[in-house]
Amino acid sequence: MILSAAKRLLRILPAAAFCVQVATTQASDVPYVPTPMNVVDAMLGLGAVGPGDFLIDLGSGDGRISIRAATRFGVRGLGVDLDDSLVRTARAAAQKAGVGDGVKFEARNLFDTDLGEATVITAYLLNSVNLRLRPQLFAQLKPGTRIVTHDFHFGDWQPDQKITIDVPDKAYGPPRSDIMLWVIPADFSGVWQWTLPGAGGDVRHEAQLSQKFQVLYGRAAAHNRPVLLADAQVRGDAVSFTLGDAGGVQRYSGRISGNTISGEVSLPGGGRSLPWQATRVRTGKMDIGVAGRGDRAQAVAAGSSIKEQ
User: Fold this and answer.
1) Of 140, 159, 163, 224, which residue has the fewest beta carbons closer than 10 angstroms?
2) Distance (Å, whole) CA 222 – CA 243
3) Do 180 and 195 share a domain, yes or no?
4) Are 160 and 212 within one domain?
5) Are residues 150 and 37 part of one domain?
6) Residue 30: what pLDDT?
């Protein structure tokens, strides 16, 4: 009986030790699962990675995403991972592939990494880690920066694009993967004013815009009369929307620079286009939700089953 009890204790101890280890490490320090190469290629394709990009891979593992981007597209980049041995493996692989000068790998915490140079971020992180990372992405990345993830999301921040691919050699779950793209949006919130020529002279327009992530909404007026604001879309520093009333629909498109939007407007009745420039007279603040706290138990449960790439 004593021997049997001892055997049971020996079986329990490793599991208990694992739970304590996971609970006391950072949320990003979870088991390593390599990203299948067809997923790597899909991520680079969805992110439209190309020459001139600087790619930062968060949880870079053996470096395959950064090395693939460098060898195929001439991309420079940085990979960060907590595991020193994986970082050494990635450095050796980059040297062997002939891209060691353009792609660097460092052993560090992704939350302590300056992301500001990136034009593309890639990640295979847990949802709980993504949520903690979300405020850092909005604080450090420029509008238009692309973020591509494998399987895991950013909560109520919906992706700009999502594809699903077959992954026969996937190490966990069903043999398919979701690849998702987010584009950091510029902040268009606030009160904007502009004028357009009309039959009786210039017509003053005003739009009061609110924004949550890349979703833009609000109300507008022309000559102090309400007009319908619809079809608002934000993609990086670009915006488009329509204003409509009984006289027809105006279609606007432009890009933001500070407190100015410059672009074109297509007028009703023939689609004639005019230059258009709006000035923000009162600033707002884009809503990026509340994230970053996460639930430790949820992180532990997720960390026991899947890594951050």
Assistant:
1) 224
2) 9
3) no
4) no
5) yes
6) 53
- Give the C-alpha distances (Å, rounded to integers) separating 94 from 70, 88, 91, 115, 162: 9, 10, 5, 21, 29
Say which residue, 292 or 248, is predicted with more confidence: 248
| 303 C-beta neighbours (distance < 10 Å), count | 23
Give the whole-angstrom CA distance, residue 269 versus residue 249.
9
50 with 143, same domain: the answer is yes
CA atoms of 266 and 228, how far apart (whole Å): 16
Segment 132-137 mean pLDDT: 97
Amino acid at 122: T
Report CA-CA distances (Å) from 136 to 34, 115, 149, 206. Answer: 25, 8, 16, 32
Please, what is the Cα angle at 151 between 145 and 152, to 5 degrees? 70
Could you tell me the CATH number of the domain that includes residue 273?
2.40.128.120
Q: Are residues 208 and 170 in the same domain?
A: no
| DSSP state, residue 45 | H
What is the domain-level CATH number for residue 66?
Answer: 3.40.50.150
Residue 28 and residue 176 share a domain: yes
Contact assessment for residue 46 and residue 103, using Cβ atoms and an 8 Å cutoff: no
Name residue, tokens 């979703």.
Answer: 215
The residues pairing with 149 across neighbouring beta strands, listed in sequence order, are 123, 180
User: Which structure tokens are listed for 262?
Assistant: 């410059």
Strand partners, 254: 239, 263
Residue 271: which domain range?
190-283
Evaluate if residue 169 carries a pLDDT over 70: yes
Q: Once rounded to an integer, what is the mean pLDDT over residues 55-83? A: 97
Indicate whether 308 belongs to any domain: no
Provide the pLDDT confidence category of residue 271 given band limits of 50, 70 and 90.
low
Instruction: Report pLDDT for 305.
Output: 27
Whether residues 92 and 55 share a domain: the answer is yes
Q: Do the Cβ atoms of 166 and 176 come closer than 8 Å?
A: yes
Residues 127 and 197 occupy one common structural domain: no
